[in-house]
Amino acid sequence: ALQQYGLDFAGLARGAGLDPGLLTEPNARYPAVALQKLWEISAAQSGDPLFGFRVGNLVRPGTFHALGLGIVSSTSVLAALRRIERYSSVVSTNGRFVLLVDEKYARLETRRTELTIMPSPQYFDAAVVTICRILALCAGPTAVPVLVRLPQQSDASIEAYRRVLLCPIEFGAENVEIVFDAQLAARPVLTGNPELAAEADRMSARYI
């Protein structure tokens, strides 16, 4: 995304206190404080209120290795959401996702701990767009949320959010909340592949 804006990742990373060389090191981790600083610096340098959307649109299932494979081969949106919940701590230790399901709705929500560093609005934007795009690869229109709630108001207009996420948006929530119709989410999808999804689960479990 930074390259599309003509910005130098390595320079911005060093400015945030990150070693850009770690990107080539297997199992390397970046500290959450510095990573969020990079998000803030990058969003400011881009000058684009839709910076988080641009980042989210560049993410592919392969970005998350076996987890991405498991999501797109899930037999339903609900099964994909359960995989996101199960393995969210592998992607980041700065909080996690939980899935709450009742008769009407399936809610994927973030949860913080005492050590969680509050992410920037652009990080939340990118995370939501990433999840919605990957779910759409799994289930198409069935994966469109009925509502998205976000903790922080960003510089982007609410109309821009609606155009990207195709659903109503609310700000000022305690956590990120992506809400789906529970009955639609439980429906089998034609692209589901239980054998492939199970193998992806085994691969993801090795990461843990």
What order do the helices and strands come in, and which of them pair?
Layout: H1 9-15, H2 32-46, H3 51-58, H4 66-72, H5 77-91, E1 96-101, E2 105-111, H6 121-139, E3 147-150, H7 158-165, E4 169-171, E5 177-181, H8 182-186, H9 194-207
Parallel strand pairs: 3-4
Antiparallel strand pairs: 1-2, 2-5, 3-5
Describe the model:
By secondary structure, the chain is of the alpha+beta class. It has helices spanning 9-15, 32-46, 51-58, 66-72, 77-91, 121-139, 158-165, 182-186, 194-207, and strands at 96-101, 105-111, 147-150, 169-171, 177-181. The chain has a five-stranded mixed β-sheet with strand order 1-2-5-3-4. Helix 4 (66-72) runs antiparallel to helix 5. The mean pLDDT is 92.
Features:
208 residues, 9 helices
Structural class by helix and strand composition: alpha+beta
Helix content: 40-55%
Largest sheet: 5 strands, mixed
Coarse shape = globular
Main sheet: strand order? 1-2-5-3-4
Q: What integer value in Å does the Rg equal?
A: 17 Å
Number of strands: 5
The unreliable regions are: none
Strand content: 5-15%
Number of helices: 9
Q: Helix-strand pattern, N to C?
A: HHHHHEEHEHEEHH
Q: What average pLDDT do the residues reach?
A: 92
